[in-house]
Amino acid sequence: MNQIEALKEFKKISSEWALSEAQESALLGPDDLHRLERIACVVSIYKSLNIIFSSSDRASAWIKKPNDYFGGETSLDVMLKGEVQKVKIYLKAQEQ
Fold first, then answer.
1. Terminus of the chain with fewer CB atoms < 10 Å: N or C?
2. Which residues have CB under 8 Å from 94's CB, separation 6+?
3. Coil, strand or helix at 66
4. Domain count along the chain
5. What's the pLDDT tens digit per position in 39-68?
6. What is the torsional sign of CA 30, 88, 19, 23?
7. What would the mean pLDDT of 7-19 be, rounded to a whole number?
């Protein structure tokens, strides 16, 4: 996936998740060097959620619900702190 395709996919996911511009910026991070890697993680999270949940509405709502695994924080809170991989790994394990 090239950078333009990746950004389009990210914007589509961001829209479904109803993220603010500030949240989008935080997820993309401050540097271009790792931007594609972070977008790939967000795409992976999105795909995992749509495998786990039967409804895209439930999948989108999940990221904003508190989760005991994340100490009561939402997965979005965790991702916004730069721990996108942590959410990706958690969801991959839930697919099993």
1. C
2. 48, 52
3. strand
4. 1
5. 999 999 999 999 999 898 999 999 999 999
6. negative
7. 96
DSSP, collapsed to helix, strand or coil, labels residue 41 as helix
Residue with tokens 């890697």: 37
CA distance 92 to 80: 19
Judge whether 41 and 84 are in contact, CB under 8 Å: yes
| Dihedral of alpha carbons 84, 26, 12, 40, sign | negative
| Segments forming the whole domain that contains residue 36 | 3-94
- Give the DSSP H/E element, type plus range, for residue 32: none
Whether 96 shows a pLDDT value over 80: the answer reads: no
* End-to-end Cα, the chain, rounded Å: 26
Question: Is the overall model pTM greater than 0.85, yes or no?
Answer: yes
